[in-house]
């Protein structure tokens, strides 16, 4: 084999950790992946059943993406010419990085940030600088703005995963308007936060806002993400960068039907926000934990030296949460998804039994 290039490339890949998925625990109460269980399973089953009835998967979904984008346009109140879709927001981020960044491109983000984005930068050898969160899991907007001047691309997940932090809207707007490179705002958890910057794409040509139906609509398994950006970028992305058929016929039809019933999503989001506050207030009662504010559908807390014991004890009771460990100066971070009232109550009772 010429110069053993294939073997060398495989070895390079093997040295990259890659995005870490949560551990699979059979028959567990699943509170580890920020999925939306508040939207009823029947609602999802009805959507998929109706999508099947109007689909012919023997055919390629010609015109399907366009109809989906038209429905997103109505939902977002954004022109369809400024919207693109992908096989989850992950795929959209991957296509942006692989086509707009290189070894000479400097990316600025936060530490921590969405793990997939970080690992993709490593895969493509893109230089990345990450501003660390403070001890109370907030990010200094001024420091971020100061360092942005030496970078080409800014990436912020807002609200942030895994901290749940969200900048004040005015602060983030100032950052966007003051930067002259590409800015990617990942709003995967946007519906659970205080605001969206989607409307800013109408005036800011360097801004790309990425969103998804995975979290708020509870469609994680269908893999449907989308973005809002200026017309030139969107046209080029949709015609050239994106795959000819990036999402399946069933996903397209299910997405359209879900968007037509967006009130179901909005009701679920309000319940999740209320439950999020209940979880925060309850676990703050224990001195063993340091609990951080959240604008997402999860809560991050530091269990310090006992985090492995807490995680294992919950797993033994059939409750799966995310074990993160060290984040900045915090050594024992755990993250729990905000589930249904019943799911959250089981989690809180288990915590009470462990620490009460």
Write up this protein:
This protein is 41% helix and 17% strand. It has two domains: 111 residues, Aspartate Aminotransferase, domain 1, CATH 3.90.1150; 220 residues, Aspartate Aminotransferase, domain 2 (3-Layer(aba) Sandwich). It has a seven-stranded mixed β-sheet, sandwiched between helices. It has a four-stranded antiparallel β-sheet with strand order 9-10-13-12. Strands 1-11 form a two-stranded parallel ribbon. It is α/β, with parallel strands linked by helices and 356 residues long. It is globular, with a radius of gyration of 21 Å. Helix 2 packs across helix 9, helix 4 packs parallel to helix 5 and helix 10 packs parallel to helix 12. Helix 7 links the parallel strand 5 and strand 6.
């Amino acid at each position: 084999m010429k110069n053993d290039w294939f073997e060398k490339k495989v070895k390079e890949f093997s040295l990259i950790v890659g995005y870490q998925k949560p551990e699979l625990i059979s028959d567990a109460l699943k509170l580890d992946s920020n999925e939306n269980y508040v939207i009823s399973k029947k609602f999802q089953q009805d959507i998929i059943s109706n999508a099947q009835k109007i689909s012919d998967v023997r055919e390629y979904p010609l015109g399907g993406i366009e109809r989906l984008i038209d429905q997103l346009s109505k939902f977002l109140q954004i022109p369809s010419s400024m919207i693109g879709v992908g096989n989850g927001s992950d795929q959209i981020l991957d296509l942006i990085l692989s086509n707009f960044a290189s070894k000479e491109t400097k990316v600025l983000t936060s530490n921590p940030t969405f793990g997939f984005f970080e690992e993709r930068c490593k895969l493509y050898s893109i230089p990345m600088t990450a501003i660390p969160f403070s001890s109370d899991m907030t990010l200094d907007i001024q420091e971020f703005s100061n360092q942005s001047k030496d970078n080409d691309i800014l990436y912020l997940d807002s609200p942030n995963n895994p901290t749940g932090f969200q900048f004040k809207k005015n602060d983030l707007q100032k950052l966007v308007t003051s930067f002259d490179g590409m800015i990617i705002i990942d709003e995967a958890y946007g519906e659970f936060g205080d605001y969206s910057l989607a409307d800013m794409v109408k005036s800011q040509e360097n801004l790309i806002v990425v969103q998804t139906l995975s979290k708020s609509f509870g469609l994680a398994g269908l893999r449907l993400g989308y973005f809002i950006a200026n017309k030139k970028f969107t046209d080029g992305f949709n015609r050239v960068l994106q795959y000819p058929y990036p999402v399946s016929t069933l996903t397209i039809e299910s997405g359209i039907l879900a968007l037509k019933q967006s009130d179901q999503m909005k009701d679920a989001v309000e319940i999740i926000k209320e439950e999020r506050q209940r979880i925060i207030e309850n676990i703050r009662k224990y001195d063993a934990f340091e609990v951080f504010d959240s604008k997402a559908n999860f809560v991050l807390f530091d269990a310090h030296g006992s985090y492995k014991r807490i995680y294992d004890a919950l797993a033994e009771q059939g409750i799966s949460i995310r074990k993160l460990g060290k984040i900045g100066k915090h050594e024992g971070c755990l993250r729990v998804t905000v589930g249904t009232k019943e799911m959250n109550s089981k989690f809180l009772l288990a915590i009470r039994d462990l620490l009460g």
